[in-house]
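Input sequence (488 aa), recorded before submission:
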Amino acid sequence: MNSATPRVIVEGVAVSPDHLIGGARVSSATTFEDRSPLDWSWKLADVARGDAGTADAAVTAADDAFPGWADLAPSGRAEHLHRLADLIDAHNDEIAIVETVDMGMLLESMRQRLVARGAINFRTYADLAATYEERHWTSKGTTNTVQRMPAGPAVIVTPWNAPFMLSTWKVAPALAAGNTVVLKPAEWSPLSCSLLADLTVEAGFPPGVFNLVQGIGEEVGPPLVGDPRVKRISFTGSPETARHIGRSAAENIVPFTAELGGKGPLIVFADADLDAAARKAAGQYDDSGQVCLAGTRILVQSSVHDEFVKTFHQHIDAHVLGDSRDPATTIAPMIHPDHVARVEGFIERALANGDTIVRGGHRIDDTLHIEPTLIEPASNDSEVVQHEVFGPVLTLQRFADEDEAVELANSTAYGLSAIVYTSSQERAQRVGRALRTGIVWVNTFLVRDLTAPFGGVGISGIGREGGDYALDFHSDLKTLQILEGSTS
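Predicted structure, token format:
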């Protein structure tokens, strides 16, 4: 590793393309290009390309810093996290514009929702950890206390969509629990996480408590997750990568949590508010469908199918595809030409396999936009129904009754989220309980209580994040048992 590389200027914001290890910026001998999905000819930065040596240095820094950070009382760690949250709020505009040009997400959404959520994540977990009440009880002549112990260095690997928010969502509970962190952001959108690293330094975090490693996943990821000094691994990404990480976690017997995408149903019953349901369904094209929680399989009761579809098309027609910095734009470009090609492959195979392209299906000129695409599959077994596309592609299927709706909804290997539209409280309860997913929204979408558990079933992942569930994951739980009357 070499001395730090000069910062690059992205939309007026100075961003380091380097790692942060032990509180200092360090570069690598080689780099990789980071380009903007808003204009693929726009190179944002040459970013440090970490390797096994980088990984070792980052884990060493986290391991060295762990005892001091773990020894801080939860209230002391909370002070650091609250300072960091305040700095995120103060730098909202800079973080938002950098992530918009780096990942492509709508600027207004970044400002109002995602960057702000990053600050909320740190405050929420800081307060939960600081106000945690140990469980006490008596049993068989003893007093019992359950205590949380910080586990050790945690490696956190985050995806390219909404990288800042999703990184804070994972980093916050790890730090609040008393662990040190090595964060590896995705190479397609690394820059906003570099700004997060700067803010940890400004917030006064001890060197090594938070470390950032840039690089190509298959190069620097294995030495990070395979290091025996790492005591927790948290990952969001694909099932294929999770299997590799899971093998490393198993080798070292390290707890591992993974959120691996979804193929969520959006179920519309005949008694639903059809306009609200159609508007929400059209909203699943937001961010070009690059949202793991999206309801990409639209299931509509046959008796209202035609009416719903007519309204649905009207709401799709209102979308505007354009530059994510333009307030008029409602659908952002996709992240990378390789991902565009992947999504185009799904559409081409759907057409070849006898599925019907109801609308869309084409890339727009030489941009990274694909038209909002709606497909009626020839069969529920169609690839486009059963596999996550992660693009602006929705499927449309009919169902006759509640039982068939549930059967179709539960028919994929995924189980992250579901959306149900109905005016019946009884149906909401029945269907909600019957769906095999980590979360079910009824007559709404993306409303999150950060204290609730979050995660998937099936190949959508293992483990749960959110609230005390995340803090427990990042802790070693200990029961202290003392014979009554044996101490005074």
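Checked by second reader. The chain has two domains: 8-260+456-479, 264-442.
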